[in-house]
Design goal:
- The chain has 294 residues and is an all-alpha fold.
- It has a domain of 183 residues: Ferritin, core subunit, four-helix bundle (Ferritin), CATH 1.20.1260.
- The protein is elongated.
- Bound molecules: fe (ii) ion (FE2).
- Fe (ii) ion binds next to α3 and α4.
Amino acid sequence: MEKPNESSMATSKKGDETKAATAADTTSKTENNPKSGADKSDKSTTEKSETEKNSGKAAAQSTADSKANGKAAGKTGSELDSNTDNSTEDEDDSEEKPLKKFFLDALKDIYFAEHAILEALPKMRDAATTEELKDAFEDHEIVTRKQIKRLEKVFRNIGEQAEKKKCEAIEGLIKETENIIKSTPEGTMTRDAALIIAAQKTEHYEIASYGGLVQLAITLGYDKCVDLLEDTLEEEENTDYDLTDIAESFINFEALNDDAEADYGEDDESEDYEDEAYEEEYDEEEYEESTSYH
Ligand SMILES: [Fe+2]
């Protein structure tokens, strides 16, 4: 029987020298599935030169490695407080500048998204099968509350009120998660495998958003905001990594048994089915013909 597809689970790897910021940039595990489209992630985009950072091009690009800056995930409240004081960073007359406005809109977008995620996480926890995934969602709920507070500090630092702006992307991702819960059998590993992928899609939206915000904050000279946003970015990346770890350690493998029992009874029958399905789907000659350029 073929090994389950582990590598479709996109990851952010802890300890990398640079951090991926966009979903497309985020690296994927590749060792077990050379066919995965995610293998084509552009590793080179994580290596941003100082020139790019300073030229304002880096809106959707990765942040510098916060570990290299001596940061640690999960700062304490007092450490968090040390990032703020009563002064604001926006003391020049840049309020009307389009880039400042865009930065503010993007903050409102992710502020909305964090609240929506906070609301969705208990439902995801209740729907999950394994204690490991339930715990992961519970932990992320605590982290998300902290991230909302941190965003409020960012708003304060630039002299703005914390406000939400409707984020249709996150609404869509949450809707997709709800559909996954409806369409997977309760109490199965398939449910958890699917929930992990749904959660990672959300994480990647957040990673892209915070990665872009960090770079915009650098460009706009909002130094205190850079620190705060980088802390959250690192937490999102760690969550993504942890979800991958849970999926690859056992859930994906056990979900394979869900399929066999639910749909085909005996193991040998399911194996036959898979062989046929594989032949149908991956007829290499047909594939090459349909995709070749003339
Ligand atoms: Fe978050």
